[in-house]
Amino acid sequence: MTTPRFVQLHALVSYSAALLNRDDSGFAKRLPFGGATRTRISSQCLKRHWRKAEDEWALSGIGPEMSVRSRKIPEERILPALEAAGVGTPDTRKAAIDAIAIALYSKSALKDSSSRQALLIGEAEIAYLIEKAKLAASADDAKAATMTIETLFKKEEKANLSAMLATKGILHAGLEAALFGRMVTSDPEANTDAPIHVAHAFTVHGEEAETDYFTVIDDLETGSGAGGIFDTEITAGLFYVYVVVDVPGLVANLGGDAALAGKVVEHLTHLVATISPGAKKGSTAPYAYADLVFAETGTRQPRSLANAFREPAKARAADAMARLTGYLSQFDGMYRAKETRRLAALADVTLPGVAARQTLDDLAQALAAEVAGA
Q1: Distance (Å, rounded) from C-alpha 142 to C-alpha 90?
Q2: Which residue among 8, 195, 212, 219 is least enclosed by CB atoms within 10 Å?
Q3: Helix axes 258-274, 43-52, angle to 10 degrees
Q4: Residue (of 309, 295, 187) closest to 239 by Cα position
């Protein structure tokens, strides 16, 4: 079996009365497309929920350790380890932690931690920094502790995070970094390219939104009993989701382990189909599974099927599936069908190049086997 260059996942997922992803004003995120405004879910929101899912297909259950994304790694992870080990004095520990914060984030890191950029870092890297911090905190005074850390992070010393990745492998940055990439402004050579590319999801039809007016009832209040009057936006929609996996990039980031890459793709396929993003979970229960998951594997450059919905479709799964069928037929007429295609769907739908529908389990397993080269 030939290992594919790319895996493409397309999904249609429907939600009602939800507020899945909010902007800075508290309204649903939106996207103008094809002359109509659509409701949108950002790729960051989707990836966050896939990373944090806790079910049988959780990324954390694959094997490699996960990563930690935070602005407070020195204070919340490294300092407690120093204190627990009883290394150094309060002054030398503080000096070491402050120096690490400046090295990891910026020179202004000590003024306000909220101004820092959240850093994605692996558990192995945190353990590495803890050992270096112990060495620094053991110095005679705070100045010596600071100099020890500053020396560690000088490029010419070859002892920073990028050097660690070069000698011990990219998985020391954690599984999330290997899958979704990371940027380390203090150490650009420790940056990781993302082999999993995620588009912003959007409704295949024009936005459907309403302002929800509601009151909070005060149990001890007489009369109307209103303890507060509020409003919020809720939306409904059928979303198109698109994900691309750069298979050689994924295998490389996983240390050349093709079998592990296959397992990642299997888990990711299930997560795309079954994990729901969403704010206001307590009041909207925004949980849904995909109506359709369409997978393609091949060697040529991927291409989204978003243009099937440039002209807004009707807000029905059947119409969206018909649009996909028509657009794929047109695409194949011009470029020919060169990918291997698989389909899992609720409805009895036929897409060009698909022999028959499969269960999601079978589809995900087939993708895993193809990526692993089995």
Answers
A1: 9
A2: 219
A3: 110
A4: 309
Report d(CA 353, CA 342) in Å as an integer.
8
Q: Is 309 exposed, middle or buried (0-12, 13-18, 19+ CB in 10 A)?
A: buried
Position 275: which residue type? I
Burial class (CB in 10 A: 0-12, 13-18, 19+), 106: middle
The per-residue pLDDT for range 300-319, each reduced to its tens digit, is 999 999 999 999 999 999 99
Q: If you average pLDDT over residues 181-194, what whole number do you get?
A: 80
Burial of 113 (0-12, 13-18, 19+ CB in 10 A): middle
Copy the structure tokens of residue 277: 């993003």
Give Cα 338 distance to the centre of its chain.
29
Q: Which amino acid is at 245?
A: V
Better-scored residue on pLDDT, 128 or 310 = 310
Global pTM? 0.91
Look at the block and give the residue holding tokens 């899958």: 179
* Residue that is written with structure tokens 């024009």 in the block: 206
**How high does pLDDT run on average in the chain?**
91
Q: How many CA atoms lie within 13 A of 34 on its CB side?
A: 15
